[in-house]
Amino acid sequence: MIAGLSPNTQWVLFSTLILGMAAGLIGCLAYWKRQSLMSDALSHAALPGVVIAFALLGFKSIPGMIAGAAVSALLGFLFIQWIQSSSKIKEDTAMGIILSIFFGLGMMLLSIVNRTAGGGQSGLDSFIFGQAASMTGKDVRTMSALALAVIAAVAIGFKEWKLFLFDSDFARGLGLSGKLMNGIYMTLLILVIVIGIQAVGVILMSALLIIPPVSARYWTQSFKRMLILSALFGGGAGAAGTWISTLGKGWPTGPFIVVVSSSLFLISLVFGFQKGWLAKWRHVQAHKRQAAEPLRQNARKEESAV
Amino acid sequence: MSDLVVAGLSASYRQNKVLHDVSFRVQPGTLTAIVGPNGAGKSTLLKVMLGLHPRLSGEVSFWGAPFAQVKTRIGYVPQRGSVDWDFPTDALDVVTMGLYGKVGWLRRPKAAHREQAMAALEKMGMAGYARRQISQLSGGQQQRVFLARALVQNSDLYFLDEPLAGVDAATETAIMTTLRLLKEQGKTVMVVHHDLHTVEEYFDHVLLLNRTVVAHGGTAEAFTKDQVYRAYGGALRWTGGA
Lengths: 306, 242
Known about the structure:
The structure holds 2 protein chains of 2 kinds.
Chain A: H1 7-32, H2 36-45, H3 47-57, H4 62-86, H5 91-115, H6 126-129, H7 137-156, H8 158-166, H9 168-173, H10 178-200, H11 205-217, H12 223-245, H13 253-271, H14 277-305
Helix pairs in contact in A: 1-7, 1-10, 1-11, 1-12, 2-4, 2-5, 2-11, 3-4, 3-5, 4-5, 4-10, 7-10, 11-12, 11-13, 12-13
Chain B: E1 4-13, E2 16-26, E3 31-35, H1 42-49, E4 57-62, H2 67-70, E5 74-77, H3 91-97, H4 100-103, H5 111-123, H6 139-152, E6 157-161, H7 169-184, E7 188-192, H8 199-202, E8 205-210, E9 212-218, H9 219-222, H10 225-232
Parallel strand pairs in B: 3-7, 3-8, 5-6, 6-7
Antiparallel strand pairs in B: 1-2, 1-4, 8-9
């Protein structure tokens, strides 16, 4: 099945697999920072940067657009922080404001650029829902290398991430700077978003960042295994979604990744060993049996007495 | 020499000044209760001393040096509610975190580190719960895990934020026995404490705080009816001795 695909498609599959794994790992960090929605807000906030970079350069340059997306997402993040610190508006509201303003601005710019000469054929639309098949060999190599770097950053600092996420005050007492860890976390998050938007799109990037860690949580009570599972779910969804999208001409990648990712979530929700419905139901049944045992014994005694 | 000198410390929390001109010295080998009404700035005082919260003015020095130079000699037990106990890890793993500074950044803990952590759990009567998920521990057991994590740090000075809040009697006894033992080993312990009934029984020094220091010294001198009334602004029924 895989062997029958063109070499370029095989590379694209490989890169979305690595991207999904990186997103699954960073999503886990976001999950325990209670900032899952932040990843969604920042991926939407990346759109105007992508469009502006294209408009300025006049052609589709991946490094240029990654830089644009990074600046734009970072601006979005700073605005979210600024709204919170200078008003009584809560974080989720601030994220909602920035998400819609930046995305609206991005769509507006996109429609303007698409009307200008050359813009229509630019393939910029693929940045909204993702078009993995449109990636060139060079895009694929850049994306894979950056995603591998993200995976390495999480793996090398595993112990530090765990400490920082569980108890950041205690971590600071031990000399692990919260500012440094936050800075690295934001850098990794923005990096994953900007390398993912071409393949998955700005709207659905959050499917790779939010759904895999939530699914992994149902299976395990260990942070390490949660990271590994989340990476596997993310990678699996990335690769499988991309493969399905290559079956039809011009099919977008993002929606299929979401479908695969959500299916994995549903399976986890029902069958997850630790927190799945089935595991919980069994737990309750075992308790009921235990609680009912003395009653049954009493009943038997009474019967024999009669 | 004093272990800890705080001079003219001020700090604010969300635009409200919660600490104003706080000054005191703490001698080695003492067990001090930090006592005061809600909002008196007790937790903030700990956080400011440990550099976790910014200060507006004033100086804090440990053994004559700033915190950054001596942080490995200082242990901190935050309030139990300050972390998410649903985090997927077990008791032994949390205690091992206390050794991360000694393990070295980006290195993995070794068997020897886990043995040390296990010994600390044993001291707190928690050896049987080493591999238990922290979400499945009772409040008192969680507090004991936190204290065990501080013990493995083998610090000279300990700060504990409300370690006895909402714990069972067995945990309260276990914690106080451990703190007295630390004191006997010549270590210095400061505890944010909320239960006025037990101050005289548990502590040899008291720091009465209400945004500034109301009284500080040996329990007999500082923890008197008048001083406590001043700290609490009269909103209190006196149940102590003197």
